[in-house]
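Supplementary Note 3. Input sequence used for the single-chain structure prediction.
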Amino acid sequence: MVAKLNAAIKEEVRLLRARNILPGLAIVRVGEREGDIAYQRGATKRCSSLGVEVKSLVLPTTVTQEEVLHVVDSLNEDASIHGVLLLRPLPKHIDDEVIRNRLLPAKDVDGITDASIAAVFTGSINVGFPPCTPQACVKILDHYGVDLKGKRVVVVGRSLVVGRPVAMMLLGKNATVTVCHSGTKNMSALCREADVLVVAIGKARMIDQDYFSPGQMVIDVGINEDENGVLCGDVNFTDAEKIVDAVTPVPGGVGSVTTTLLAEHVTQAAKCIGGRGA
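The predicted structure, written as discrete structure tokens, is reproduced below.
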């Protein structure tokens, strides 16, 4: 699946270069969260390999809201930048809503503005871009021919980054979706009842054998660093592969599809925006 997407993106980049347009992505990271660093690294590597130029801006956790707004404004005005990836969550002293909605919708390649999120929730077509990670989850299920109609899906995590958008996308596929979170009672029992389990809770290997049952497909969105400094997901992969039918690995699972879709969104934005020549 990823190889086919990559080939299509390379061809789009070739056609854009023929029009003297060089697709450009800006990645904005605040702080040193390991998950953000890993995502930035993977996105940079994937986009660069496909011909998308990447500009990284790393800000300290002490950065002020006005300073972040200044960065977003400068990227909005930069003709060489066609897409902006703002890694979240932001530090608590920064108003996420204000920052993300400062971004021009045309450059919102990860679906974080209110307009993009609303399009996901309403099922609108051709309104901005959907969030890359939730879209990657759905792409994986589509690729493996999982017919979600009537299927029981449990999403662990309710953030606007992954949990809620992916729940709405899965509802759009006619699945019956339950969203679990920190206040959910008997969460392991609910997870065991699922045909498809999507985990995006941000806790290393939290979802273990108590949450699985035979026949399930498990999508692990998490990216964490364990006590030994090894990247791992929210799912205990060793437990899962002994019980379920299929489980995505970390690294190399959802993340690889996510970064490819990010590159695809940037090339699509470049086709609409145009800009600096190669």
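The CA atoms of residues 97 and 135 lie 21 Å apart. The beta strands are 24-30, 53-59, 83-86, 152-156, 176-180, 196-199, 217-220, 224-225, 231-232, 246-247.
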